[in-house]
Design brief:
Blueprint lengths: L2 H29 L4 H23 L11 H28 L2 H8 L2 H12 L2 E2 L2 H19 L10 H19 L2 H4 L4 H22 L7 H25 L5 H7 L2 H12 L7 H18 L6 E2 L6
Antiparallel strand pairs: 1-2
Length: about 300
């Protein structure tokens, strides 16, 4: 399998798992009395511990290797605190105030920030296809937010606020760990980042009453922690070894697709024609990015 094809399938698989976890989170928020802070802390702790156990069994000598160098340790802390925690909390807050489908669509503004950041960092013009995808994605998000009423916002303001912040956080989550992944296994990087991130939420979990979960509720928590977090993030990070961050970010459109299908079919969330059209436009950008291989054009420095 070609490296780019492998990267595409890794990114798609991770985003489908991620989208499914959003739908499960919506069920936990609306039917099981769970709060975003409690769920984020639990999912990060569960996934972080499992990933570190997995990494320790497969490569026991490397478990603490990331802490042996000041540079890699600092990058890991930055990834945990500036990438992992914000991307988790903002996304689930958007789900809590809106729904999983619209939250994942709003989060999709992340690739736009990735493209802009890479253009500044590497002094490179974004590719023409990146501009086209950005415009298509923005219009798709616009349809989702307005639900066809193009002059008024149809989502709760807090849902839009947290959704856009989730997009910014997603960009940081994609860009920060690139250097770490060139030297350390993705399971190790993700596991430590999740475990560190979970510590921020532990005081809230320890001082709050346990939600009155039934068997289905606890099953949802486990699903969110294992499938929707551990495997989702691991597959997504693995894809960064084969694809450019902008491409991987655009492929995340499979996340809102899976979230939408589950929330509509299983949770019976209302989803009209404008939202469907917006979702299809967002999904179209994934294919445009996946099958585009034109390199970036470097910005020429002007003489001083």
């Amino acid at each position: 399998m070609a490296a780019k094809t492998k990267g595409v399938w890794l990114a798609i698989s991770g985003c489908i798992c991620w989208g499914a976890s959003g739908a499960f989170a919506q069920y936990l928020f609306t039917h099981q009395g769970v709060t975003p802070s409690w769920l984020v802390g639990m999912r990060l702790a569960i996934a972080g511990v499992l990933l570190l156990i997995w990494s320790g069994v497969t490569n026991p000598g490397q478990l603490f290797s990331i802490w042996r160098h000041r540079r890699s340790a600092g990058q890991l802390l930055a990834f945990a605190l500036c990438g992992m925690v914000p991307s988790q909390f903002t996304y689930f807050s958007a789900v809590n105030y809106g729904n999983a489908a619209t939250a994942t669509i709003l989060q999709f503004t992340g690739p736009l920030f990735i493209i802009g950041a890479l253009a500044v960092i590497h002094r490179q013009w974004p590719r023409r296809i990146d501009f086209i995808c950005a415009l298509i994605a923005l219009f798709g998000v616009y349809l989702m937010v307005t639900k066809g009423h193009l002059t008024s916002l149809q989502l709760a303001p807090l849902a839009v606020f947290w959704g856009v912040l989730a997009g910014v956080s997603q960009a940081l989550y994609t860009l920060i760990p690139i250097q770490l992944l060139r030297h350390f296994d993705a399971k190790l990087v993700t596991g430590w980042a999740m475990l560190l991130g979970s510590l921020i939420f532990m005081p809230h979990i320890a001082t709050s009453p346990v939600p009155p979960l039934n068997a289905v509720g606890w099953g949802g928590v486990v699903f969110v922690g294992v499938i929707g977090t551990m495997f989702a993030y691991l597959l997504y990070l693995d894809s960064l070894q084969y694809l450019q961050p902008a491409t991987t970010g655009m492929l995340s459109s499979f996340e809102p697709l899976s979230a939408t299908l589950i929330t509509v079919v299983v949770l019976h969330t209302a989803f009209g024609l404008p939202e469907v059209m917006g979702g299809l436009l967002v999904l179209a950008t994934a294919f445009l990015q996946a099958f585009s291989s034109k390199p970036l054009t470097r910005v020429k420095s002007k003489p001083v």
